[in-house]
Amino acid sequence: MERSPGEGPSPSPMDQPSAPSDPTDQPPAAHAKLDPGSGGQPAGPGAAGEALAVLTSFGRRLLVLIPVYLAGAVGLSVGFVLFGLALYLGWRRVRDEKERSLRAARQLLDDEEQLTAKTLYMSHRELPAWVSFPDVEKAEWLNKIVAQVWPFLGQYMEKLLAETVAPAVRGSNPHLQTFTFTRVELGEKPLRIIGVKVHPGQRKEQILLDLNISYVGDVQIDVEVKKYFCKAGVKGMQLHGVLRVILEPLIGDLPIVGAVSMFFIRRPTLDINWTGMTNLLDIPGLSSLSDTMIMDSIAAFLVLPNRLLVPLVPDLQDVAQLRSPLPRGIIRIHLLAARGLSSKDKYVKGLIEGKSDPYALVRLGTQTFCSRVIDEELNPQWGETYEVMVHEVPGQEIEVEVFDKDPDKDDFLGRMKLDVGKVLQAGVLDDWFPLQGGQGQVHLRLEWLSLLSDAEKLEQVLQWNRGVSSRPEPPSAAILVVYLDRAQDLPLKKGNKEPNPMVQLSIQDVTQESKAVYSTNCPVWEEAFRFFLQDPQSQELDVQVKDDSRALTLGALTLPLARLLTAPELTLDQWFQLSSSGPNSRLYIKLVMRILYLDSSEICFPTVPGSPGAWDVDSESPQRGSSVDAPPRPCHTTPDSQFGTEHVLRIHVLEAQDLIAKDRFLGGLVKGKSDPYVKLKLAGRSFRSHVVREDLNPRWNEVFEVIVTSVPGQELEVEVFDKDLDKDDFLGRCKVSLTTVLNSGFLDEWLTLEDVPSGRLHLRLERLTPRPTAAELEEVLQVNSLIQTQKSAELAAALLSVYMERAEDLPLRKGTKPPNPYATLTVGDTSHKTKVRGEGTGLLGSLSLPLSELLVADQLCLDRWFTLSSGQGQVLLRAQLGILVSQHSGVEAHSHSYSHSSSSLSEEPELWGGPPHITSSAPELRQRLTHVDSPLEAPAGPLGQVKLTVWYYSEERKLVSIVHGCRALRQNGRDPPDPYVSLLLLPDKNRGTKRKTSQKKRTLSPEFNERFEWELPLDEALRRKLDVSVKSNSSFMSRERELLGKVQLDLAETDLSQGVARWYDLMDDNDKGSS
C-alpha cells in the first residue's frame, strides 16, 4: 500500500505492544483528520477564514428570525410562530434520533464481536442470532463476498434505476415526465448477514435458507422533477429482517439450481433518513406514516405471500407455480375468549379503578383481523372465526395482541405467538395461551385445513359447514388461486391510443385488482390472486379488464366455478375469449381450486345408513343367491331421525328507511342518493334483491325461500349495498338468530342497520313446516298466487325429500365387471347428482315416479323398492312430500272456488344409473313444487270465458289482478287465434294503467298465470273499472288486433278483500261482461 510523503513509517505488527488496547483510547477515525498534503503540519484557518465562519454563523441565526419578521409584517398571531417553532423542534428531534440510531447501528456492525463480548452481560436482545440460537450459523465468509460485490451491485442499481424505473415513473403520470435520478450511491457500508439457518428435512427438490440480514448503510439516492423544481432523496437507512431464500427446483444439469426465490417471512423493520423536499416526512406524525407506506410497498413486493423469483435456466417449467405457489394449508382461527385481563380504565384521576374494553388483533404475515370491542369486561367472550392462508412451514407465526379500546391511544394488554408448525402437527389445537407483556390468557381453537384436489369431498365439507356457526363470515369450503398471466389484442382507446390495462377480479362482494401495465394492448401481468369460496357450486368469477382510469372497459369474462369441479386436478390453464371486447381479444389465466378438508379424529361427520361407515354392500358381502350368510332383504329404508325434519324459511324483504347517501357527483360537490339492494346469507345459500334506483327509502317487496334445519347457532345475515359501476358501497348490516324464528314461527320487525350512522330494514320471516296432508294443497296454491310478487320467484307449495338407500341386481359391464354406479335425480329443471365411484359406465336404468302418486299415498310418502325401466335392477328409496301451509299470510283462501291441477304435481323425477354411494353430505333431494291451474267443467258463453283474480293488497296499497287463462274462445278463421289479454283501468286510457300478457300461439284455451299490479289507494280503486280484452293478431304483416271478446268489471261492485278466482263470460264490444 502506497504512503503519502508526509506520513511517517507505520509500525509493523511486531512492533506493537502485546497489551490489549482500549478502543476508546485510540478512536478509528483519528487518523482521518490528518491532511496528507500538508506534510504533517496542521493547516489552521487564516484571518479571512475566521471572518467568513463568523459571518456564516451570524447569517444562519438571522435566517431564524425571518419567519418572525414575516409573521409580524402580515399581521399574524404569535401562535403561528409558536406552532412553526414547535414543528421545527419536533422535526429536529426525530432527525437527531434517526442519526443517533444510524451511528449506533454502524458502530455495532463495525466491531460486532468486540461489542458482543463487551455487552454480553448487559442485554440479551443485543446479541446476534448466531449467539442466541445454536442452529443459526455465523457466515462471515459470506459477508466478505458481499462486501467485495457491493460496489458492482451499486453500478447495477444505478443502471436499473436510470434505464428501467425512471422511464416507468415518467410514463405513469404526465406531471412526472421530467423525473430523473440525479444520484445513486449505495455507499461504503454493505449489507451484512448476521446469521444463516438451513432447514433440514424439507422437500428433497429444494434448499431452504433463512438469512438474518441487517443493513445500516450510507446509501444516497436523489431524484428531481425539473418541471416543478422539486428535489428529494434518501441519505442513510436501516433495514433489519429475516430473508428466506429457496433454491428450487434442483435439476441434474448445470447450474444445478433452476431458480432462486426470495421473500421476507415477516415485515422487516425500516428507518429512513430523508433529504430535500422529503425532509418534511420527518415531521412527527408524518414520519411513522411515511415509513408505514414504504413498508406497505415493500410488503406488496417481498413479504409473503409475495416473493421475488430469479430463474437461472431458460424455459423453466411452472414459473407461475414457483412465483406464487399454492398455500401449504389454511388455519381456521376461532378466537373464543380471554380471561384475567388487566384493568386499564381509571376514573377520578386514578382513584377509582375500572375495567377494560378489550379487543384482539389476529395476525399471520400480512393477514390481519380485528375483533369487535367488548365493553367493560375483563373476561371477554368474542366467539369469532377467521381463516388465514399459510405459505411457509416452518417460519410463519400466529400472533394475537389484545388491546384496551380508548378514545385517544389504546392500551396494550398482552400478546401471544405460536408457530404454525405446531398447528400442522396437532391438526386441531384448543387451549388457553398466556399473554406475554401483560396478564391473562386467551382461548384459541386452531384447525389445520388441508388442501385437496378431490371434488368428491366438497359435499361433505358443505354439509359440515352448514352446521357451523361462524362470524363475521361463514366458513369457507374451498380456495381459488388465479394466476393472471397476459392478454392479447385488447381494443385501443379513442384516437387509436394504447390503453393502460389493469384487471379487476370479483367473486360476490370481494374484488381484487392487478397492477396497471402502461401503453400496451398486449399486457403481461404475471400476478396471483387468492379467494376464499363458501360454495363453489353456485359462485362465479367475474373478470373485468379496464383502463387504469376504471372508466373504459376493455373486456369481460364470467366463469362459473362449477366448471372447475369437473376439470382434472380442479385446474384450468388456458386462453379465454373476452366478451364486450375486440374479435381477437383474449386472456390467459390459470385457475386452481382446492377443497378445504379438516382431517381430525375430533371431528366426526354423522353417518347414515348406506354410508361406508354404516353398511357397505360391496365390501365382504356374501355371494349373491346364498341363503345361509346373506342378510334378509329390507322392505323399507332406514333413514336417520333427522330425515324430513327440515323447515322452509320464507323471507319477505319489504323496505328500508333512512339509508345513507353514497352517490357523489362533480367530484363530491353534489350529494346524490343511493341505489340500494339487499344481500341475504343463510344455510350456505345467498340471495340478492333487485336494485332500487335513487332512493334512500326503497321498497323491494321480494320473497325468498330457503330450506333450514334446527341446528343451533345459525343466523340470517343481511347486508345492504349501494350499487355502483366499480365497487358497491356498504350501507349497513344486521343479523337475525334463526333459533328465534324457528321457535316463534313468525317475526315481523324493523331491524336497525349496524356499522352505519343511520338506516333500518323491514323484514318479515315465517317458518313453514311441511305437513303430510294433501287436503290443504288447494288452499296453499291459492294463497301463494295472491301474495306472489312480481320481483320474486314463484313461491313453493310443497317440499319433496328423497332418500336413496341401496340398489340390487344392476346390469354388469362388459367382461362381467361390476359397474361404478351413481344416480341423478331430476324434478323439472333441477337435478342433483350423487357421488361417483370411479368413472361412469353409461345408463344402467331409469325410473319415472309421478308426484301425483305421492298426493294419494298415505302420509304423502312412498317407501319401497322400485323396478328400473330396463327391467334389470331395483332401487330402494323413500320419497316424502310435505305441504307448506302459511299461518301468517294475511290472506283468506276460499277453496270452493279455486282448483289446482295435478299436471304439475305429476312431474317425473328420473333416476339414471345405479344406486348412489350415499354419504352424510347429501342423503336427500329437496325440490320446491309449483302449480298450474286447470280448466273447470262449467258452461261457457258464445265467445268463451276468461279466468281472473282481482284483489286489493292493503299492506302494499296495490290493486292486484291475476290473469289465469281463457277457454272456449271463438275461432273466426281457418286457423286458431294467437290470443293475449289486455287490461286497462278506466277511465284512464293511457299507457300508465295499461297491462298486457304474453301471447300464446294457435290455441282456444290459453293459460297465462300472469300477475299485474297498480299502485293506488283503495278509495280510488273503488272508483275505477277494469276493462279486460282478449285479442289476437290478425296477421303477421298487419298491426291490427282482432277483438275476441271483452269483459268490464266495476270494482265498486267487486269484493276486493277475498281474492277469489272466477270465470267471466266474454262479450262483444257493446256488451258488459258477467260471471
From TrEMBL:
<dbReference type="GO" id="GO:0005789">
    <property type="term" value="C:endoplasmic reticulum membrane"/>
</dbReference>
<protein>
    <recommendedName>
        <fullName>Extended synaptotagmin-1</fullName>
    </recommendedName>
</protein>
<dbReference type="Pfam" id="PF17047">
    <property type="entry name" value="SMP_LBD"/>
</dbReference>
<dbReference type="GO" id="GO:0006869">
    <property type="term" value="P:lipid transport"/>
</dbReference>
<dbReference type="GO" id="GO:0035091">
    <property type="term" value="F:phosphatidylinositol binding"/>
</dbReference>
<dbReference type="GO" id="GO:0061817">
    <property type="term" value="P:endoplasmic reticulum-plasma membrane tethering"/>
</dbReference>
<feature type="region of interest" description="Disordered">
    <location>
        <begin position="1"/>
        <end position="46"/>
    </location>
</feature>
<keyword id="KW-0472">Membrane</keyword>
<dbReference type="InterPro" id="IPR031468">
    <property type="entry name" value="SMP_LBD"/>
</dbReference>
<keyword id="KW-0597">Phosphoprotein</keyword>
<feature type="domain" description="C2">
    <location>
        <begin position="942"/>
        <end position="1064"/>
    </location>
</feature>
<feature type="transmembrane region" description="Helical">
    <location>
        <begin position="245"/>
        <end position="265"/>
    </location>
</feature>
<dbReference type="Pfam" id="PF00168">
    <property type="entry name" value="C2"/>
</dbReference>
<keyword id="KW-1133">Transmembrane helix</keyword>
<keyword id="KW-0812">Transmembrane</keyword>
<dbReference type="InterPro" id="IPR039010">
    <property type="entry name" value="Synaptotagmin_SMP"/>
</dbReference>
<keyword id="KW-0007">Acetylation</keyword>
<dbReference type="InterPro" id="IPR000008">
    <property type="entry name" value="C2_dom"/>
</dbReference>
<dbReference type="InterPro" id="IPR037733">
    <property type="entry name" value="Ext_Synaptotagmin_C2A"/>
</dbReference>
<feature type="compositionally biased region" description="Low complexity">
    <location>
        <begin position="896"/>
        <end position="906"/>
    </location>
</feature>
<comment type="similarity">
    <text>Belongs to the extended synaptotagmin family.</text>
</comment>
<keyword id="KW-0445">Lipid transport</keyword>
<comment type="function">
    <text>Binds calcium (via the C2 domains) and translocates to sites of contact between the endoplasmic reticulum and the cell membrane in response to increased cytosolic calcium levels. Helps tether the endoplasmic reticulum to the cell membrane and promotes the formation of appositions between the endoplasmic reticulum and the cell membrane. Acts as an inhibitor of ADGRD1 G-protein-coupled receptor activity in absence of cytosolic calcium. Binds glycerophospholipids in a barrel-like domain and may play a role in cellular lipid transport.</text>
</comment>
<feature type="domain" description="C2">
    <location>
        <begin position="312"/>
        <end position="433"/>
    </location>
</feature>
<dbReference type="GO" id="GO:0005509">
    <property type="term" value="F:calcium ion binding"/>
</dbReference>
<feature type="domain" description="C2">
    <location>
        <begin position="454"/>
        <end position="580"/>
    </location>
</feature>
<dbReference type="GO" id="GO:0005886">
    <property type="term" value="C:plasma membrane"/>
</dbReference>
<feature type="compositionally biased region" description="Gly residues">
    <location>
        <begin position="37"/>
        <end position="46"/>
    </location>
</feature>
<dbReference type="InterPro" id="IPR051634">
    <property type="entry name" value="Extended_Synaptotagmin"/>
</dbReference>
<dbReference type="GO" id="GO:0008429">
    <property type="term" value="F:phosphatidylethanolamine binding"/>
</dbReference>
<keyword id="KW-1003">Cell membrane</keyword>
<dbReference type="InterPro" id="IPR035892">
    <property type="entry name" value="C2_domain_sf"/>
</dbReference>
<keyword id="KW-0446">Lipid-binding</keyword>
<keyword id="KW-0813">Transport</keyword>
<feature type="domain" description="C2">
    <location>
        <begin position="627"/>
        <end position="751"/>
    </location>
</feature>
<feature type="region of interest" description="Disordered">
    <location>
        <begin position="614"/>
        <end position="641"/>
    </location>
</feature>
<dbReference type="InterPro" id="IPR037752">
    <property type="entry name" value="C2C_KIAA1228"/>
</dbReference>
<keyword id="KW-0677">Repeat</keyword>
<dbReference type="GO" id="GO:0031210">
    <property type="term" value="F:phosphatidylcholine binding"/>
</dbReference>
<comment type="subunit">
    <text>Interacts with ESYT2 and ESYT3. Interacts with ADGRD1; inhibiting the G-protein-coupled receptor activity of ADGRD1. Interaction with ADGRD1 is abolished when cytosolic calcium increases, relieving ADGRD1 G-protein-coupled receptor activity. Interacts (phosphorylated form) with SLC2A4.</text>
</comment>
<feature type="transmembrane region" description="Helical">
    <location>
        <begin position="62"/>
        <end position="91"/>
    </location>
</feature>
<feature type="region of interest" description="Disordered">
    <location>
        <begin position="895"/>
        <end position="920"/>
    </location>
</feature>
